[in-house]
């Protein structure tokens, strides 16, 4: 089911499917372009509510968010509009994972459980993340996903869709992520992760070439709540696309 | 026709195998390749070349801004313009330009431009570029998604600071200043002419038209590839109901003049190939940060297959770098004075441009060759084109300096007289 909610006077898209335990998911740009095997696998065991942040596929309004506080408030407003209630499960992936972590830090009583899939938000000079905004065009797909064909197929315009309109949506989603993560993906989360009280699960592709999997340990150590880490073999940064069943299993086990 | 001598100030001692052994000439260019001692030599040679262009009668001398770049050694063009302001007498000083969004607060640019205008007796052309992604977003860390909005706000603040007759507060989206009070103001009243160097952005065309600023297409790919951009610009002017005054537009072209075409090929082959092999060796990873290009421009480029192919070719480094290809593509225009004059006349008429930004030093060209190129162009090419457009159109965007008789001269010049 698809619906649109209002955030700062701009439309934001929400997809939902499934029954049972609700998981509110702030997805990454590529994973919100189309419904995938990962979405389906989660929806088989829970109610997945996939929320597109401003500027992410299906949503507008990134261009009026000028600072990090505005982004955090927009993420909270989007979740509110999607139906999130105190104690619910929040999940965030990759770029959007940084904002999910911040929501859990800013409103620690509000988020019951937290799932972070290879989130941005930290940066360590002794073990830097790859510059996601400076990927060589010929090598980008291989850096982002282990399954490059699946990634390219995920980004390609579906049949019947106007390619320019679709490609602008992809471009816009990249811009939206850059708007709150430029230049190095460090949102200074290290100052706030100690406020996260939610029981947390961190999921990482073992072959993540954007954010080293050891960042999972950095997150787990900094979060005040009980945190467990699952590293997925055969997964790159976009691990939900590379290993949909394994990630869905790690999610569903956690919320069971 | 106005002739503007443009310097990039390249690092000329790159190793022969630079392209094979190094990732990029920009952003992550290897600092170990650079000798400050050589830069000392270069700066003084390059400034000599610019001063010589003034002596030879060029209408303007131009400097520009780059960061983390081995083909453009001017992180601060204003420093260069300041020294030129003291050592030249006639040429307009075109700072093309200072990237407004990089400075916090942007009134720093208002102050420095005003200083250059005052020192030079009102000879400044104020270039306001958005700046390249490599300079602004990667090396200077500016957010590509906000760069253009910051640029526009910085522009508004600078223009207001030049015209204000009282201190004022500025509470903008990105800049907050309780007390804006620029001392000194520019000498030119109400302000120096504003020029905007650009690539092919539709917003920049529209904005230049709305603001009545000069649009200068600054491309290294010559006249053949420029047609779509220049046509796009004039179409936008027509849409806005603007006249076709050629002095609204500038165009950059590499030039190599010699007594004969054969001699020109011999003389300029090495520096041209040096430039197109090494100086455009930019890692494509640094060319397109998300949000740098607006959605409207991205849409236009996606729809235009020609534009998309040209972009791909430039981004992926498939530009020609052998002399035959360089000449065939029109990157560099060479020949005898008559041939060059003839080609430039055709280009100027075709693109309807009244301001030619000319690169007469490029790549590893020596000072002697650069000066030869400059002198021959000034003596034998310029006179053939000098009158073009001047009878039909008024140049409303040129500096209005103090009369020579009213200027206070630098000490050395006074002593010489």
How would you describe what is shown here?
The complex is a heterodimer of chains A (256) and B (417). Chain A has helices at residues 37-45, 68-82, 94-106, 140-144, 148-155, 163-181, 214-222, 239-242, 244-255; strands at 2-7, 10-17, 22-26, 47-51, 88-93, 111-117, 199-205, 227-232. In chain A, helix 1 links the parallel strand 3 (22-26) and strand 4 (47-51). In chain A, helix 1 (37-45) packs parallel to helix 9 (244-255) and helix 2 packs across helix 3 (94-106). Chain A has an 8-stranded mixed β-sheet with strand order 1-2-4-3-5-6-7-8, with helices on both faces. By secondary structure, chain A is an alpha/beta fold. Chain A is 37% helix and 20% strand. In chain B, helix 7 (202-211) packs across helix 8. With 417 residues, chain B is an alpha/beta fold. The interface between A and B is medium-sized, with 24 and 24 residues.
Number of strand segments of chain B:
11
Helix content of chain B: 40-55%
Distance between the termini of chain A: 23 Å
- The oligomerization state is heterodimer
Give a quick rundown of the structure.
The complex is a heterodimer of chains A (256) and B (417). With 256 residues, chain A is α/β, with parallel strands linked by helices.
Task: Summarize the topology.
The complex is a heterodimer of chains A (256) and B (417).
Chain A: E1 2-7, E2 10-17, E3 22-26, H1 37-45, E4 47-51, H2 68-82, E5 88-93, H3 94-106, E6 111-117, H4 140-144, H5 148-155, H6 163-181, E7 199-205, H7 214-222, E8 227-232, H8 239-242, H9 244-255
Helix pairs in contact in A: 1-9, 2-3
Chain B: E1 2-6, H1 18-21, H2 36-56, E2 60-63, H3 77-87, E3 92-95, H4 107-120, E4 124-127, H5 133-139, H6 147-163, E5 168-171, E6 176-180, E7 194-198, H7 202-211, E8 214-217, H8 227-239, E9 249-257, H9 261-279, H10 295-303, H11 305-315, H12 323-329, E10 332-335, H13 337-351, E11 355-359, H14 367-385, H15 411-416
């Amino acid at each position: 089911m698809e619906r649109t909610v209002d955030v700062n006077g701009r439309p934001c898209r929400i997809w939902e499917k499934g029954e049972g335990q609700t998981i509110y998911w702030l997805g990454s740009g590529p994973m919100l372009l189309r419904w995938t095997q990962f979405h389906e696998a989660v929806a088989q065991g829970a109610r997945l509510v996939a929320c597109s942040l401003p500027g992410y596929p299906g949503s507008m309004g990134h261009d009026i968010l000028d600072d990090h506080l505005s982004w955090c408030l927009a993420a909270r407003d989007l979740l509110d509009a999607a139906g999130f209630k105190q104690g619910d499960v929040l999940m965030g992936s990759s770029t959007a994972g940084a904002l999910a972590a911040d929501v859990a830090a800013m409103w620690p009583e509000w988020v019951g459980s937290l799932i972070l899939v290879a989130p941005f938000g930290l940066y360590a000079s002794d073990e830097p993340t790859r510059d996601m905004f400076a990927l060589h065009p010929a090598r980008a797909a291989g850096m982002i996903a282990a399954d490059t064909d699946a990634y390219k197929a995920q980004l390609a315009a579906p049949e019947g869709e106007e390619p320019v309109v679709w490609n602008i949506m992809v471009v816009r989603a990249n811009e939206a992520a850059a708007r709150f993560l430029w230049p190095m993906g460090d949102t200074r989360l290290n100052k706030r992760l100690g406020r996260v009280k939610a029981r947390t699960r961190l999921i990482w592709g073992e072959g993540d070439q954007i954010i080293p999997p050891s960042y999972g340990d950095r997150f787990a150590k900094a979060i005040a709540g009980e945190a467990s880490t699952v590293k997925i073999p055969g997964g790159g940064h976009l691990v939900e696309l590379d290993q949909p069943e394994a990630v869905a299993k790690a999610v569903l086990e956690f919320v069971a | 026709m106005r002739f503007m001598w443009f310097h990039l100030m390249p690092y000329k001692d790159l190793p022969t195998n630079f392209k094979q052994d190094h990732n990029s000439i920009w952003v992550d260019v290897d600092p170990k390749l650079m000798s400050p001692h050589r830069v000392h030599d270069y700066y003084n040679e390059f400034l000599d070349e610019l001063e010589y262009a003034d002596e030879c009668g060029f209408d303007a001398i131009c400097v520009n801004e780059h960061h983390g770049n081995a083909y453009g050694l001017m992180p601060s063009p204003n420093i260069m313009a300041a020294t030129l302001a003291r050592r030249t007498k006639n040429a307009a000083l075109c700072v093309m330009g200072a990237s407004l969004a990089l400075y916090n607060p942007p009134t720093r640019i208002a102050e420095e431009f005003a200083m250059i205008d005052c020192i030079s007796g009102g000879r400044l052309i104020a270039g306001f570029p958005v700046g390249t992604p490599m300079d602004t977003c990667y090396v200077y860390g500016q957010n590509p998604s906000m760069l253009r909005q910051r640029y526009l706000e910085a522009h508004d603040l600078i223009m207001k600071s030049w015209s204000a007759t009282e201190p004022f507060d500025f509470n903008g989206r990105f800049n907050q200043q309780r007390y804006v009070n620029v001392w000194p103001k520019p000498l030119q009243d109400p302000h120096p002419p504003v020029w905007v160097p650009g690539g092919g952005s539709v917003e920049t065309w529209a904005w230049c038209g709305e603001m009545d600023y000069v649009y200068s297409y600054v491309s290294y790919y010559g006249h053949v590839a420029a047609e779509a951009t220049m046509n796009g610009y004039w179409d936008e002017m027509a849409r806005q109901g603007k006249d076709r005054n050629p002095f609204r537009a500038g165009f950059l072209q590499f030039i190599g003049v010699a007594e004969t075409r054969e001699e020109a090929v011999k003389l300029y082959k090495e520096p041209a190939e040096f430039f197109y092999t090494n100086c455009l060796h930019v890692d494509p990873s640094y060319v397109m940060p998300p949000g740098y290009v607006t959605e409207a421009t991205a849409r236009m480029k996606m729809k235009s297959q020609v534009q998309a192919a040209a972009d791909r070719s430039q981004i992926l480094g498939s530009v020609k770098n052998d002399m035959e290809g360089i000449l065939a593509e029109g990157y560099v225009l060479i020949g005898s004075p008559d041939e060059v004059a003839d080609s430039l006349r055709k280009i100027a008429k075709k693109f309807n441009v009244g301001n030619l930004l000319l690169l007469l030093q490029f790549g590893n060209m020596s000072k002697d060759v650069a000066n030869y190129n400059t002198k021959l162009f000034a003596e034998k090419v310029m006179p053939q084109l000098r009158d073009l457009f001047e009878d039909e159109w008024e140049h409303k965007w040129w500096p209005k300096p103090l009369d020579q008789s009213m200027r206070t001269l630098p000490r050395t010049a006074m002593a010489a007289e």
